Amino acid sequence: MPVPVPPVSAQTITDISHVIQLSVAPVFLLTSIGTILGVLSTRLARIVDRARALKDLLELAPERRHPAIHDEMLTLARRRRFINFAITSGTTAALLVCVSIATVFLGAVLKASVAVPVALLFILAMAAFVAALVFFLREILLAVRSLHLA
Predict the structure, then answer these.
(1) Rounded to an integer, what distance in angstroms lies between the CA atom of residue 90 and that of residue 96?
(2) Interior CA angle at 134 toward 35 and 90, to 5°?
(3) Which of 64, 131, 132, 139 could bridge across to 90 with cysteines, CB 3.0–4.6 Å?
(4) pTM value?
């Protein structure tokens, strides 16, 4: 025998639409984080490509060029580390935003007060996003400092 489904009341629909409205701002934040993660991934790919090119160059270069190539490879390794930290922080921020959105919906469905957990999740997400941007800035400064223009 099928279980009867209670009718959806106008109040329930209003509550859900209000929760959806509250979730819009974090979704815009997710878009920003996604954009930054795309930029970081591109920078990581360029670092990896340059490291591979230097490895090939090292095999063909005269002995006197080896120290300069090794120095550049060390700089690339440091840059890669900063980008990896930035990607990890950015991904953590995105996950925390997703969990905060899910918590808002769960609180609405369960009619539970979730203000404190959502606030904490959002603060943690913002801290992770700030960390991602700081690591990104650090990588950029290292890249510019290592640039040797004639």
Answers:
(1) 10
(2) 40
(3) 132
(4) 0.83
